[in-house]
Automatic annotation (TrEMBL):
Its EC number is 2.5.1.31. GO terms for cellular component: cytosol. Gene3D superfamilies: Decaprenyl diphosphate synthase-like. One of its GO terms (biological process) is regulation of cell shape. HAMAP family: ISPT (MF_01139). This is Ditrans,polycis-undecaprenyl-diphosphate synthase ((2E,6E)-farnesyl-diphosphate specific). One of its GO terms (molecular function) is magnesium ion binding.
Length: 247
């Protein structure tokens, strides 16, 4: 709770808090293996961590929390693990909708959902519709998501508009691209946190994080707690964000 005390004592800290935090959740499988359990056990533990992180984000009034849940490359994993992940995703959507509304959370799923089962796609639409009017935290779940896929899809939309004479090539800007990405409803990502000890971005929001601050921790996702989260936030608020300029 040290961060809370600092925010009370120093308003500059409060002003410096990130508004949009994104997390690459990594380490579920290794966490389970170290305990002699199946990887599935780690994914179940990871769900509990998500609930904790959402609560933390609400407490500090972040505007957006984006969680990288399943990448477009994760289909290469064992079939059984993928099936369990999909079941966990479906169960979470079904069981958490009342809690999302209670906490005024708007849930959005970003990614190529066409590869999901019809029942999962239907459940995604139901939860998104039921929470669409919530104006508190926006919770993005990146599922079957890839940064390259996102950019390619944006290009397709822009090309179609140009072809139909709704847009001139000369008027295409960075803003045009941003507004055709799956995160078009979002402000820029301020802070990206990756757990699990890896130092890479794994095709996550590669357009959106051009000037995001990055924070890497060796902590595996199921062990990610308030203390670790606060260390990442401390790191962020003590950095100078120049965006290519100078002080």
């Amino acid at each position: 709770m040290l961060l809370k005390k600092l925010l009370i004592l120093n308003q500059n800290y409060s002003k410096s808090l990130p508004k949009h935090v994104a997390i690459i959740m990594d380490g579920n499988g290794r966490w389970a293996n170290r305990r002699g359990e199946e990887r599935i056990f780690g994914h179940q533990a990871g769900l509990r961590t998500i609930r904790r992180v959402v609560s933390f984000s609400l407490f500090y009034k972040f505007k957006i929390l984006t969680l990288y849940a399943f990448s477009s490359e994760n289909w290469k994993r064992p079939l059984l693990e993928i099936m369990v992940l999909m079941e966990l995703f479906f169960f979470s959507l079904h069981s958490e909708v009342n809690n999302l509304n209670k906490k005024n959370i708007c849930l959005k799923v970003i990614g190529d959902t066409t590869k999901f089962s019809s029942s999962l796609r239907k459940q995604i639409k139901i939860v998104e519709k039921l929470t669409v009017n919530n104006d508190g935290l926006i919770l993005n779940i990146a599922a079957n998501y890839g940064g390259k896929w996102d950019i390619v899809e944006a290009i397709k939309k822009i090309v179609k508009r140009v072809k139909n004479c709704y847009l001139s090539i000369d008027n295409i800007t960075e803003y045009t691209v941003s507004k055709n990405l799956s995160t078009k409803h979002c402000i820029p990502i301020d802070l990206v946190i990756r757990t699990g000890g890896e130092f890479r971005l794994s095709n996550f929001c590669i357009w959106q994080i051009a000037y995001s601050e990055l924070y890497f921790t060796n902590v595996l996702w199921p062990d990610f707690n308030r203390s670790v989260f606060e260390k990442a936030i401390f790191s962020f608020i003590n950095r100078k964000r120049r965006f290519g300029s100078i002080d």
